[in-house]
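Reviewer 2 asked us to include a model.

Predict the structure of this chain.
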Amino acid sequence: MSESGAQEGITFVVTSCGRQELLAKTLDSFHAFNTYPITRYILIEDSGQPEMLEFLKRRYGHLFDDILFNEPRLGQIRSIDRAYAQIETPYIFHCEDDYEFLRAGFIEDSLSVLKDDPKAITVWLRNLWECNRHEFEMRIRFTDTGVMYRRVLPKSSHNHTWYGFTFNPGLRRRADYDRIKPFTAVGHELEINYAYNALGFYGVTLEEGAVRDIGRGHHVADIGEPLYRRIRDYLRRRRRERRERRKTR
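Predicted model (structure tokens):
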């Protein structure tokens, strides 16, 4: 359950959708490496599967202050709005259910960056070479506590541009959510990214990564997800299955 003694209140929010094994790796690695006291733990489950809810209560019921179960499914954005409506702390550590944490101190480092740069919308935690071909400024910035970080540069593809907002694991301010809430009224991740860019915000990334993506090939289609993304993820799953079959021969 909640830990006490935090200088700055942080709520941990994780979005989940029926992937027990990946979620377990995410949560277990987070608690193995996190060294910052969390004020409140919230999980929102959007699979609509009763057996998933049973798993969550059995394995992680002692950990979470709130386990929110959507029935029927709400989709990613409405789920996030529902979870964020419960938050009273000034900071949110947003997490997805398919990442593995790799080192300690990532929340302390991220908090230092957000205090240093008021226009940083969220602090990325991936290694620089694992960021889906995003580019970063050459300059390395330093916070007052010596944490190194860089700004994320805009990335254009498929007739749109990403400016650094993401729902990947990372620390963010509740006040910045309040500026444009609810997300449902704005759109999906891309439209939210445009909204924050219009307000002058951008993404930043730690120089020293702290997570890795473990969800490739295990994507769950979101409600209203574009067809091209479903096709892309289907092809990724097929390639992964072929690789796994070759390994067993």
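The helical segments are 20-33, 50-60, 76-84, 106-116, 174-180, 189-198, 227-248. The longest strand covers residues 10-16. We have added this to the supplementary material.
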